[in-house]
Amino acid sequence: MNTKYIFVTGGVVSSLGKGIISASIGKLLQARGYKVTIQKFDPYINIDPGTLNPYEHGECYVTVDGMETDLDLGHYERFTGIHTSSNNSITTGRIYKTVIDRERHGDYLGKTIQVVPHITDEIKRRMLREYEKDEQLDFVITEVGGTIGDIESAPFMEAIRQLRWQLGRDSVCVHLTYVPYLKAADELKTKPTQHSVKELQGMGIQPDILVLRTERHLDNALRMKVASFCNVDLECVVQSEDMPSIYEVPVSMQRQGLDAAILRKIGIPVGETPAMKAWHEFLNKQRRATREVHVALVGKYDLQDAYKSIRESLNLAGIYNDVKTKLHFVNSGEITPQNVAEKLKDMAGMVICPGFGSRGIEGKIIAAQYGRTHDIPTFGICLGMQMMVIEFARNVLGYVDANSAEMNDSTPHNVIDIMEEQKNITQLGGTMRLGCYECELVKGSRAWEAYGRETLIKERHRHRYEFNNQYLQAFESHGMKCVGINPAANLVEIVEIPQLQWYIGTQFHPEYSSTVLLPHPLFIDFIKACVHGTAKA
Ligand code: GLN
Fold it and tell me: How far is CA 101 from CA 54, 69, 106, 122, 209, in A?
């Protein structure tokens, strides 16, 4: 079968959950045995979201091949378990850069370079993944970020219009809109959806399928109204009601026949509905996991999306431990030696979050000390691990001025230092140590046990600073062990204190590779320790 293309656009408002719908479509087609990839096109001009503040854009998700991408790629991977790559996250900036570089190279000699056709051609080339000759995909799902009608997404819409014309039945357009409920009128309103579809039609795109986001159930009469006003079949008007968990969405979509509608539009026999046994088992486990375990998320961004993958990884790990992980954000900027006990007293464990720059780091160090001295399961990730190391250096090794060179480049005790390969780098975009690297685990360590006694693992990284090996002996002889080492570069990737219940820091980001059906072993082991601790209390 030649590749089919599904375009997912959104209207009315942002934050409707296009990423979840795209991931759900991917999951449902994958369950039918199709080879699928999901890619995201974002209209902003940054080359990638790597330099964006999480307050602007939420978490930056990192692919195995080291691309800093939109957090929706995290949903794609968690739902399908399929690795994405740098080709799955495209921005307007990347499109323009390619075209401008080509222009400088002389590839268009004599021509005026224009949005149409040069920019739109480059968008089409990437939507079709023409450069990936050997991929042999059945479906490419392309989610377009932003809301239709935005000035900056117009070239993407024009590219989709052209592709729909070119591909005919080999493509499907799924449009996500919002149906608000007006309390005063006690009514659900379809007008914003009608306007949004009109806007899309004005750009020459007729959606095949509408997914209506709603907080209340939509009856058939309302769906019929939308179908007839928007030129869409009734069976192609699907509703996406608020769910207790985002992982219920694929099942709800399947129940309403979203995947079947897509196949019918394309002209593929629908066949039997896949049972999705493993997914249902997971959902059942999730529904049964009601006992709560309280975990603190010590970080500086008071925003749900800033630590998206960590939050999801902890939730998943809870479910696999038959508990509901209840996360409590603790702002590290507000932690002091006086209030730390009060802030963390009811917590079964804590995660010290990644980050950049000095804001909030002293609070993370205080939290790490509290975790260490009160033997509370503590998981430090990237900057969190670095703060565990600094805390140990200051309070156990006695180097009161210990710090990371990132925060203080003249400290005599730079227990966290800039990596050799980073020293001459001046550009900030996409230049960190990024993507998957190997790590050798020390036999007998807690981390090694957690990984099921594997000796060589691969994890994703995003950092410039590292444990300073000059201090390795001092740390080890005082009880903080370096139990994960990169074999090629000899960099310390995991530290732990074996004397404590669970005190582990990782220089890498395990949260990027935890998926619904294959949750990450470190998170599972961490929550297990939290549950154990709670039972003891
Ligand atoms: N700022 C630290 C570094 O660059 C940690 C980065 C992170 O937490 N992702 O090494």
Answer: 29, 22, 9, 12, 37
Q: Report residue 243 as tokens.
A: 């769910």
Task: Give me the pLDDT at residue 13, please.
Answer: 85
> Does residue 434 line the site of ligand 1, with CB under 6 A?
no
- Three-class secondary structure of residue 124 per DSSP: helix
Query: Hey, what amino acid is at 188?
Result: L
Atom number in ligand 1 closest to CA 466:
10
How far is Cα 476 from Cα 481, in angstroms, rounded to an integer?
A: 5
CB 447 within 8 A of CB 494: yes
User: How far apart are the C-alpha atoms of 25 and 37, rounded to whole Å?
Assistant: 10
Q: What pLDDT, on the 0 to 100 scale, is given for residue 420?
A: 82
Question: 127, 3 in Cβ contact below 8 A?
Answer: no
Burial 97-116 (b: 16+ CB within 10 A, else e): ebbeeeeeeeeeeeeeeeee
- The closest of 367, 373, 366 to 351, measured between CA atoms, is 367
Q: How far is the CA of 463 from the centre of ligand 1 (A)?
A: 4
Nearest to 416 by CA among 439, 394, 389, 379: 389
Atom of ligand 1 nearest to the CA of 416: 10
Please give the angle made by the CA atoms of 68, 69 and 70, to the nearest 5 degrees.
Answer: 150
Q: How many CA atoms lie within 13 A of 451 on its CB side?
A: 22
Low-confidence ranges of the chain (pLDDT < 70): 533-537
**493 part of the active site:** no
Predicted local distance difference test score (pLDDT) of residue 303: 87
Ligand 1 neighbourhood includes 356 CB (under 6 angstroms): yes
Model pTM score? 0.95
Position in ligand 1 atom list of the atom nearest CA 465: 10
Q: What's the confidence (pLDDT) of residue 535? A: 41
Which of 425-464 are b and which e, b meaning 16 or more Cβ less than 10 Å from the residue's Cβ?
Answer: eeeeeeebbbbbbebbbbeebbbbebbeeeeebebbbbbb
| Annotated catalytic residue within 158, 406, 496, 511 | 511
pLDDT computed for residue 135 by the predictor: 81
Q: What is the pLDDT of residue 408?
A: 93
Q: Identify whether 175 is a catalytic site residue.
A: no
Q: How far is the CA of 383 from the centre of ligand 1 (A)?
A: 5
The verdict on whether 463 is a catalytic residue reads no
* For ligand 1, atom 8: residue with the closest CA: 354
Cα of 353 from ligand 1 centre, angstroms: 10
Centre of ligand 1 to C-alpha 524, Å, is 23
